[in-house]
Design brief:
The protein is mostly helical. The chain contains two helices and no strands. It is elongated and about 60 Å long. The two termini are 25 Å apart.
Length: 72
């Protein structure tokens, strides 16, 4: 027995996922750029090593990819 979904429900679910994805894109982009600013401006929050910030950026990107695969 197959259960057919209402086309309106499918569209609502799609828009919810799409909005979550837009928020995730903005958050990931902001976070990666913030790490770059921290590297260039050590006077803001203290000095961080290049490898620490690269590792943080890699974790942000990996988290974003994981969220994207879960979301879609």
């Amino acid at each position: 027995m197959t259960h057919k979904k209402d086309p309106q429900q499918i569209m609502r679910e799609f828009h919810v996922r799409q909005n979550r994805q837009f928020i995730a894109i903005a958050a990931a982009l902001f976070s990666v750029l913030f790490c770059a600013v921290l590297y260039k401006r050590p006077d803001l929050f203290g000095e961080f090593s290049k490898s620490t910030l690269y590792g943080l950026q890699a974790m942000i990107i990996a988290s974003f990819i994981g969220f994207t695969s879960y979301n879609w």
